[in-house]
Every structure is written in C-alpha cells, then in structure tokens.
Amino acid sequence: MKRLSGGLIDRSQTIHFTFNGKRYQGHPGDTLASALLANCVQLVGRSFKYHRPRGIVSAGSEEPNALVTLREGARAEPNTRATMAELYDGLVARSQNHVGPLNFDLLAVNDLLSPFFAAGFYYKTFMWPRAFWEKLYEPAIRRAAGLGELSELPDPDAYDRGYLHADLLVVGAGPAGLAAALAAGRAGAKVLLADEDFRLGGRLLAESDQLDGAPAQDWVAAVKAELESLPNVRILTRTVIFGVYDHGVYGAVERVSDHLPTPGGAVRQTLWRIVAKRAVLAAGATERHIPFADNDRPGIMLAGAMRAYANRWATAPGTGAPVAIFTNNDDGHRTALDLMAKGIPVAAVIDARRGVERHGEYRLLPQADVIGTQGRLGLHSLTVRTARGSDTLQVGALGVAGGWNPNVHLASHHRGRPVWDERNLAFVPGQGGPGGLFPAGACAGKGSTAEALADGLRAATEALAELGLTTPALPLPRAEARYDNTAPIWHVPGKRRAWVDFQNDVTVKDIVLAHKENMRPVEHLKRWTTLGMATDQGKTANVTALAVMAELTGKTIPQTGTTIFRPPYTGVSLGVLGGGDTGTHFRPRRLTPTHHWAKANGATFVEVGPWMRAQYFVRPGETHWRQSVDREVLSVRADVGLCDVTTLGKVDVQGADATLFLDRLYANAMASLKVGMVRYGLMLREDGTAYDDGTCARLAEDHYVVTTTTANAGPVYRNMEFARQCLWPELDVQLISTTDAWAQIAVAGPKSRELLSRLVDGFDLSNEAFPFMACAPLTICNGLRARLFRISFSGELAYELAVPARYGHALMARLMEAGADLGATPYGTEALGVLRIEKGHAAGAELNGQTTGQMIGLGKMVSSKKDAIGNIMSRREGLAAEKRLLVGLQPVNAADTVVPGSHLFTQGAPRDLAHDQGWITSAAYSPHVGSSIGLAFLEDGANRMGEVITAANPLQGSEVAVRVVPSHFVDPEGGRLRA
Amino acid sequence: MRFSGFRVFAEALTGHKGWKPLWRDPDPQAEYDVVIVGGGGHGLATAFYLAEVYGIRKVAVLEKGWLGSGNIGRNTTIIRSNYLLPGNQPFYEFSMKLWENLEQSINFNAMVSQRGILNLYHSDAQRDAYRRRGNAMHLTGAGAELLDQAGVRKMYPWLNFDNARFPIKGGLLQRRAGTARHDGVAWGYARAADLRGVDIIQNCEVTGLQIENGRILGVETSRGSIRARKVGVAVAGSTSRVMAQAGLRMPIESHVLQAFVSEGLKPAIDGVITFGAGHFYVSQSDKGGLVFGGDIDGYNSYAQRGNLPVVEDVIEGGMALMPRIGRARLLRSWGGVMDMSMDGSPIIDRTPVDGLYLNAGWCYGGFKATPASGYAFAHLLATDTPHETATAYRLDRFAKGRVIDEKGVGAQPNLH
Amino acid sequence: MLIPHPLLGLRDAQEFTYLGDARLIDRPTGGNEAELAEYVYLRDNPAGVHRELWFHEQGDRSWLVVTRNTLTHEILGAELARDVSLARKGDMA
C-alpha cells in the first residue's frame, strides 16, 4: 500500500478486500476507489461503447468510469461507483463490461472500428435484409451494450420506508450546509441534515485550508458535536436526497448497511419521504474536465479529486511518477500546491490561460494545452503544446481542472431552468425552483469556503424567517475566499478523439457530427449522441458539451440551454424505492371472519381483490378440485350449503331522505320498497352503463342496508358519498360502510329453513311470515343480534344471515354443528360460481363496465319515470341500439367443454371480426345439467333460442358447437326460491 | 442521401465529411395546403403519409419546441396490437403492420424489435378475459398465444412464482409486439417527410386559429400567420389548450404519466412484460436500461413531472414481480402530459370547424399507434373520410353512446 | 402533494382519491341527453387554476373541492364539497 501522510483514514486497522480476485488492503475511512489507488490499481473498468481502458476520474457520486460490480451472488450489485463504495473488511468487487480479462478486453476491437461507430450510426444501417435486425444485429448490440450484470436471484435484503418531518431540511453537509444546520439548530428549528457521504464536511474533507487558523476538521468536529447534542437536529449521513416533489416533499435514501459485509438483522437501505417546510440546498459543485486528445486514459482525473485523494485519503494516482495539472483556472494550481505539500512531485502545471503566474515552486507552462497522451492501460506521458512548440512530459498521472459546475439538480427538478453565471462560467439555480428551497454555497455559485459559510447562514436565516423563527447571530470562522478566475476554455481542438462524456464515449467529434447533421437543439444533441445518458447523467460532461455546441452554432451557452434535470439526483436502488412491500407483502391481505374456520376445514384459498376467500373445501378422498366443487354444488341443490359472503360490500343508509336518496341512486324504482323487504337493485354509471348490482334491504322507515359486489365495495361507497355530499347535500341522509362490521353467511338449499329454525330465537321463518325477499333484524342463539335476508344467488331457497363480525367464526361452526344431520356443507367461490351460472346471474365477467342493463336482460328495470344516475344517458342511440343479450349455452355434444373467452359465430361463417357475434363470459361444469354450460353475450340473442352456433377459440385451436338456451339452467320459474 | 451500411462504411473511411443535415430548418411559407400543428410522432408521421401516400406535399409541421419533443420523446417504447374491442383492434393491427415495414419505408433504422409482449394473469377471471382478447386478436390476424404458468416459467424463470401475493397463473403473449427506438421514429419520419418536401418548422408555437364563418383559414404563430386550407391538430397533452382557441371543449383531461429507466445492465429481460396484479410494465432497451412504468399519477397536470407515491407504487410492483431487480439502480424518471380521453380511446375526426381536423386522446398508448395514427390522419385530411381502420374514433361517439372503453371504467379519464 | 383539508389540516394526497373537475357537482337535474353528455364528457381542462374534486377515502370521507394550479401543482385552497354544493344551490335558488 502506498500512503501519504495525514488523511482521514484509520491507520490503526487494516482491512482486506479483493478486486477481480486479487487481494488488497485498505483502512476504515477508505472508499473502494481510494483503496485501489493506494494499491496502485489504475485500470478499473472499460467504457460503454469503445471498451477503452478506464481509471478513476472523480472522488464522488459523479464518477463516470470506475463502475464495479460489488458483492457476489444474489447480492451482486452492478454499476456501483467505486468512489461511493465504503470499504469494509471482505469487500469483493469485479470490473465490468469486458470480454476476457480487464487488461485484454476482446471488445476493445470496437475502439479500432470507432470510425464506423460515429454518433447515430445505428440509425443509418442494419436495415437490410429486414429479418437480420432482430436475428443478428440487435442481439449482438445488446450483448455488447449494458454495463454490469444483474443476478437472476431475488434480492435477499430487506428494505424499509419511513416519513420524516422537519422545519428545515439541509441537503449537503459541506461548509454551507453545516453553517445552515448549525444556525437553524440553534434557532430551535426542527432540522434534518443529510449528506450522501459517510462523513460530515463535504468539500472541507478534501481541502487543506484552515478555518480560524486551525485544521478545518476541527471546526467540522465541533459543529458535528453540537448538532448531535441538539435534540431538534437529526443527522442523516449516507443519505442522498434524490428528488424534490410537490409541497416540500423530498425523496431520500439512507444506505443503512451498505458499508457492512451484510445487513445482518438490519435493513439494507431506507426510503425516507421527508416533508420539510423549508430546505437549504447546499449540494456543492462538481468539477468539469477539459476534453483533449486521448483524455480518457487511466491516470487522468479531475484535479479536485486528485487533491481529495491526497488530503482525505492520503493517496495519489500513479505509481510514484510525477503528476501534472492541466487547468483553465486558479483552482488547478491549488491542487499542485496540495500535492507538493504531501510530497508528490509535480512535473508541471499546464495552464491554458494567457498571462498567468505561479502560485508556488513548480514548473508553470502558461498558455499551454495538452494535445496528446500515451499509455494504453495507464498514463505514462503527455504531449503539451506551448507557445514555443510541443513537448513531452513523462508523468504517472494528470489532474484536469476545467472549472466547477454548481450542483443545481434539485433546484431544477420542478423544471425551473438554471441561469448562466458569467462570473463563474457556470449554470446556477434560476427562478421557478421548487417552493421553499433555498440554494446556498457552491451550488449557488458561492464556491469559496468563506462565501459558502456565509451563504449557508444567509439561506437558513431567510428560510426560517419565513417560518417566523429568528436565527441567532452565528460567528463564522475565518476562511479562504479565493476566486478561481476560470477562463472560457472548453476543449482543446485537435484531430484525435477528445472525450466529453467518458462513460458513453461521446467525443468532441460526435458533437461536431451532430451539428453537421442538424441535431443542434440540446435535446437532439443528447439523444443523437447519447451524451449525458450514462449512469452519471452527464454530471461531468453536459455543460462542456453545451459549450462545444455553442461554439459550433455561434450561439451563447445560455442560448444553447440545458436538458431537463430529473430525479433521481444519483442512482438509487430499485429495492429501496419499492420500500420493502414485495413478495407476499406486496398488497394487504384481507381475511374473512370465517378464514381460520375454513382453513381448519380443508379450504383452499383464492385471491379475490384484497380478500382471501375459500375456493373449495377438500374432503378426505377427493383428489381433484372438481370432485370437491361438484359435491358442494349438489349439496346446495339437495340439502343446505354455507358460504361466507362477508366480502360483499355493505352500506348502511339512514335518514329521513334515505328513500329519496336511494331512488335517485338505483336505476330501478326503490321508493316503493316496503319495510321488511329486500329488492334487487341495479346501479348505473352516469354514462348509462351497468355499474353494480346488489340488494337494497329496508330495515325501517328510514333505514336501509345496501349491498354491493365484492369488487365494487369501495367505489360504490365512494360514489354514494359523492351523491350525498356533492349532488344532493340538502338531503337528510347518512352513510357508513359496514362491510367489515358484519359477518354474513349464505345459507342456501332446500333445507336452509330447517337449519335456520334451529338457531333463531323464536322467529317465524314460515313462507307466509318471512317470504322470498323479506328481511328482518332478529336475534339468534339466545340473544345474539343478527340480520336475516331471504335472498338467493344460487336459485335455491336461501338466506343470508349477518352477525357482528366477531361472531362470524362461531356462527359458521354453530351452523355446521346444527346442520350436521341435514348435510350442511361449506362451499367456496368455485361452487358459488357454478350455482350462479346455473341460475344465469350476472357477476364480474358480465358486469365488466362495458355492459348495458339491456345486455343482462334488465333493460326494463331502468325506470323511464325518474332521473336516477345514468338513466337518461342509458337511452343514447348507441346504447339503445344494443341487441346483444345474455344467453345460456350448452354444448351439442355433452362431452365438449364450453370455454369462456371463446367468440361466437353463426355456423359456417368466416372467423373474422365482421362476423363476430359475441363471446362467452363465464362457463362451468354443471353437475345439475350434467355437462359444461356457459353464459354469453350474443348478437340478437333474444331471437336465437335453440340455434346451434360455433364457439371458436382460435387462440387455443378449439371450436365447439353449442346450442343457445335461456340463461336460467335451474328452475327458470323460480319456484324453489319461493318455496 | 440514402442511408445504408455502405454509406456508413464509406463515410467512416472519409472522416464523416459527407453527412448532410437530417432535415432542413425552413422559414414558414405564407400558405400551405395542410398545416399540422404538433411536431411529435403523430404529426410527423401524418406529414410523411400525406406526402408519400396521398401526394400532398405542400405541408408544414409546426412544432413549439424541438421536433420529437412530444410524447414520442419520452415513453416506454412499447408497440403492440393486443386490443380487445372491434373499434380498436384493426387499427392497432394496421399500425403493427406499418411498424413491421417502417425501416424500409422511411430508410431509417428506428430499431423496431419484435421481442414479444407478455401480459401476465393471476386469476381465472383474468385468464378468461385474456382469452376473449386473444381470440379477438386472432380475428384480425394479430396473433396471440395463451400461456399457462409453466409456459411463463419457461420464458422468464426468475419471475416471482413462489412468494407472491398474487401468484402468476399464466400470460397472454403476442410475439409480434415489442419495442422501437422512440426518438428514432420521430427522426425517421421527420427526415423522410422533409425529403418529400414537407416543411418542419421548429420553435414555432401556434398562438391562435384563424376561423371565419365556421371555416379555418390558417393559424397565428410565434413566427407570423400562416394560411392553410386544412389544419390538423396533433398535440396530445395540449389538445384542450389548442382546441380552446377554436372555442371547443374536449372530452379530454391532461394527466401526468411517469416513466423510469434503470442504469444500463447486460441483457436481463428479453421482451416486454406486464404485471396483471399491479401497475407495472417493463422491457430492456438495446442500451441495457430497464425501461418501465405504471399508472398515471391520477390528477390533472401539465407540469410534466409526477410525485413520489407513484414512483414507490410502480417500483413496488416491479419488485413484487421480479425481485431480482432490487439491486439495479434507477437512473432517471420523467413525467409527460397525457391526453386522457373519456373512454380511453383516441379521436381522429373532423371538428365542427370546417377544415379543422383533430388527432387526440391517445391516453398513454400513443406511441404504438404512431404509424397508423399518421396514416389515418393523413387519409382523413386528404380525403375527408375516415380511414377504414379508424372509423370508430369519432368525436361524437360520446354524445351518441358509442364509446370504445377497453377497461370498462366509464367517463373517468384517470382510470383509463 | 399535501392537501390542506379544511377540517384536518395538511394531509398527504395519497390519502385521497381523485375524481376531477369540480363542475361534476353541477349535475343537470332532469336534463336531456345532450346536457348530460356535456356534463359527463366535456371538460375545460385548464393549464393553470383548476377546481377539482378529491375524496378523503383513507380519512374522514369528505369530498373536497381543491383549487390547484395544474402547471405548478400549487394548491390555492380546499373547501368541503358539501359547502360548495349547498352554496351553488343557494345561488341558483
């Protein structure tokens, strides 16, 4: 390991890691990048398109080159920036995007062929022969493209999400952010301070400058200690604020355990939704480079990063050979001085500006450019052009200082465009940024430490003033206040390729070509060349590219404009954005009151929307689901069956105007419903389409209970509230959803009356006293409050019995016990489906939102005498002309199966859209009929009874001859219901 | 200049000196036969087919920003013809056939890639609905296959089969469906239209419609007034705003749809997959990014950005369906303005103003329709009669009760 | 987004279900097909200030009329839809 003096690493501990299988050492406090540099590893990856050898460019999340796959197996994490990966003992990393070893990538042949791969080349070729694109060209391109590889295994780690609320969110813990957080903390505001780094300090960590004459780290430590002592301040390190959303909502990801070998019992990362009344954006700035010929070799990095590696991590690129600096500003000279202070030989500072002076004892080449570099896998020399001619410098590394771009991203997430700051030659946040967000410090163009400190304080003071909080005076430490004097030197013209976007291999030549081909608007430039579309989102490339395009078009940089800044600020894992609600926790699971009873009695369950419902109950000896379902169906038809129907929506409607209200809601007349009776009700949407059906029971003069389908329980209730609050607020009517309050069990079959008579407390169940469609409140089982409805979905004599939900389980058990001698049988949703198809009742497959009342045979129910929701619109010509009708279908050959989803054709008609006569909505095997049966919407169905038609299922290559029959397969007269 | 492998080869050897602008930047002329408002995919395709098929070349496409900056500039690039209703299916199948020959007809590689789309189902009811749809697709020749769970597992063994809230039971597969490079489609149509004489005028905002006695005379723009015999409006997202200039209220709301792309990855997902139990669809681009999306945010918006709950909801769906993606990173998310119509289906029709034509209401499915929409709109502009595949896309279908509601949710745009 | 519920203060928009244009309050009573078709299908859809209906479904089940700018998402106010509706009926009476 090659280490300089000082730095913020813990030399008392040595930790081990491997890169491409080779073992190395580092210290706590290292990133993977700093540790690789300390181990003299320069070559860390390959570029996207040309597979050029690449090294570390930056020291932060803007890194375009040093992407590795971290960890192994199911935890393999592609495209991790080595500059952001905190070193831990046992870390395993591999380089990406090469075929063969990293130092001999076979796909580097692309680099030799690069003349053929100019910007946009693929739009112009690969078109002939047609079939070759998908079979040959595209697969080859796909294999070569991409970066890291995703494991096929499920991500084994846990993620979490949470909410945080704050008066002031401070984004970034550099000098501006620390000053802002400290001021706000002292003012008593509730403060959140977030930084993507694992250590507070921001740029101060990378600099040698002093604050108040002492090392800056002393000040950082003191501020940190005070912030930690304040109960109103919470510090979130390893936390990136990735997006600004509406009304002060910020998206943040905290990397809770990424610095550990495995999370252990903890979550890997947490997604925070931060609601902040105000925010200070102190996100700092990102250095840009200067494109010149072959400027992408390992060993060439941003000068500020080189300084950071020396000061913070006590390491430097290269193997000890001298380094050079290429700059267009004074900041490059600072790097030279800091490196020299650490004992690193500086071969020269190559300054592209005229009339510059040395800042220390180093060789200065003024008005000079780097015009070439040498070294295939690592830089070993530079060609420099000066006023006197060209020269070769033997160097192991080169720092490039092209000026600093403020990190305006978050300030621009609401589409407020940044504005050009001529003094700093950079974009700074403009008007129209997110409300309540105050940019401060380097991200607002206040880049010196003194400016940043003062600006952070200013921003916090202004933000808190808007909340009515006064910020106490905060003495700021004395700090450097230099100005970089950046010159508008954006690239070094030349014949060879000069990289602008390293990762995506976009060179100055590509921009020239885009200009030539009229891909000049900045969005065209980006999309044509793929500039700024790599994992770093062009953080080190975009502004430079705009400058090159501006030069070509003769426009100014601000006229050229920027592309749109969009979340996330930096890549965040999909695992954490999913918040951990995956697998079986993807959605809540609702259980019916009899769920546990059903489970104990052999039920198989099925997902019905949010609910789990019993699908069928397997008895010993039954090996196929059809055996269970047929048995359940026949039990209902012959004896008595029990089914939990709690999931149907229930709405309690009360009030003096309840009758009027319901009459306006249902398409059919409700006003005439008598107390103690139930009526089937059809609700339409306002557009006249059938919406939902259910029952409406009048328990008292001013009290109704309305039921809905399971699927529409929520929406129907919502619409009822809409009608009540928005349409007819003058009516005296109150609503409450009671779906969860009452357990409801269907008791169906010829012996249902007998069974119920054993439970009711002296209630007269006779047909005379309690006829079909009667309802009543009553007590059962010696005093348990209940409601009884004589309604039937199965076509048999049937009831639905409701009790408070907590008694549902006990009621089911009691019914089974009391009905043992009657053959009481629990039945599930499958049997329920068969029973209703046999009876021709519409359900979800028929009431799919595309159906009119006429289609389900209820056209006459839609009253023409009143203005209920949907009634008038149901008479529009398109709906009135509807001639499709719900019919029954029976296979001509009883052994054939009726397949739902088949389309219907007149026998012999062509199988095309013009001859399509309808489709089968539902089908089942009917043990009652003894064959498969179906329900279908058939064109002119009313006039086709007895006709044999074809049910075609070309999707699965089958066709069945079926006979059109009435949709009631069981008891069409309804005698059983009324028995 | 004809694009070809040979041309690329020759230019590579001569330093790329011979390439020409992909299109001109003409100044607007005083008058055109047809002015198309909106230089997005549909507007550019319309111009191309007007010139190519109907021989109408005195055409201008007016674009407020840069060409291709409409929803063609930001979408999830899926092309498919797996519709259910007879008003839709033949149209989208027509579009699919045009996609299949697109590169040859416009001499531009838009990277149409028939990678297949798999719509997963999770219940018997969903399966039956897909069977109905798959059969409808067979009736137009679109083709489809119904897979059971084993069939899906064979294609994508790493989907979440074993630990799911809503287990995968199977899927409806259309092999001819796939993806195309969205920007390439815009550029290809623009270049081909430009070569046929169409003026594509960028940075030209339409500020008013000149209407006299119920007849269109031209448009006012930020670059002066332009006379036109016919004006076609294809500005999905901004339809209500433009049509308000003609005093018309539209059966449309503007909503925001977010979409997402991950960092580049080696090939992981071959085709397009849609989750039947959550709002999530995904494919992988040739560049390696997982391109995915879900539901619209659900409120009216012209802001071109969405909010965090939908980000979470979409990615929750992604993680529930394919837990292997947890360690990939989101690279970028974006929001576009969708023309959400009242029945979820588009409008290609004349308007009450003579000479003013409308192409609108594409909801979030406009990309796949680009070729057919352009063709059908060109047909309407040229002949004053609807194209045979687009006869149902009438503006008066709402008043007359002939809606085309694939989802069956009625007049609530945010549910389509 | 955060919605300033007139009874409950700032609430996350995720607690609400969106319906759309607040004109849906003005259902034409006893209207003819054409009037109802306009009511059901046509919208102003402004780019700017929009009055719209939100239902506090995961909350107190109030329908609100929220005034919001569709270009910036800025919320300018929220009222109980019931109050809005009663006031309109009072105006019309």
In short:
The complex is a heterotrimer of chains A (979), B (416) and C (93). Chain B is α/β, with parallel strands linked by helices and 416 residues long.
Can you walk me through this structure?
The complex is a heterotrimer of chains A (979), B (416) and C (93). Chain A has 979 residues and is α+β, with helices and mostly antiparallel strands. Among the domains of chain A are: 290-401, 3-Layer(bba) Sandwich (FAD/NAD(P)-binding domain), CATH 3.50.50; 505-560; 643-834, 2-Layer Sandwich (Gyrase A, domain 2); 883-965, Beta Barrel (Elongation Factor Tu (Ef-tu), domain 3), CATH 2.40.30. Helix content of chain A is 21%, strand content 27%. Chain A has 21 helices and 51 strands. The model of chain A has no long low-confidence stretch (mean pLDDT 96). Chain B folds into 2 domains: 22-81 and 84-107 and 182-251 and 343-400, FAD/NAD(P)-binding domain; 117-179 and 255-339, D-Amino Acid Oxidase, Chain A, domain 2 (2-Layer Sandwich), CATH 3.30.9.10. Chain B has helices at residues 5-13, 41-52, 89-100, 102-106, 124-139, 149-155, 182-195, 239-244, 308-321, 366-383, 397-400, and strands at 31-37, 59-62, 78-79, 117-121, 145-148, 170-174, 178-179, 199-201, 206-212, 215-221, 224-233, 252-262, 272-274, 281-284, 290-300, 329-341, 347-350, 356-360. In chain B, strands 1, 2, 8, 9, 10, 11, 17 and 18 form an 8-stranded mixed β-sheet that branches. The radius of gyration of chain B is 21 Å and the shape is globular. Chain B starts with a helix and ends in a 16-residue tail after the last helix. The mean pLDDT of chain B is 97. Chain C is α+β, with helices and mostly antiparallel strands and 93 residues long. Chain C has one domain: Folate-binding superfamily (Folate-binding fold). In chain C, the strands form 2 sheets. In chain C, strands 3-4-5-6 form a 4-stranded antiparallel β-sheet. A two-stranded antiparallel sheet of chain C has the order 1-2. In chain C, β4 and β5 (63-69) form a beta hairpin. The longest helix of chain C is centred in the C-terminal third of the chain and has 12 residues, at 81-92. Chain C is globular, with a radius of gyration of 14 Å. Chain C starts with a strand and ends with a helix. Chains in contact: A-B, A-C, B-C. Chains A and B meet through β6, α3, α9, α10 and β31 of A and α1, α5, α7, α9 and β16 of B. β31 of chain A pairs antiparallel with β16 of chain B. Chain C: It holds the Pfam family SoxD. Chain C: It comes from Pararhodobacter aggregans. Chain C: This is Sarcosine oxidase subunit delta. Chain C: One of its GO terms (molecular function) is sarcosine oxidase activity. Chain B: GO terms for molecular function: nucleotide binding; sarcosine oxidase activity.
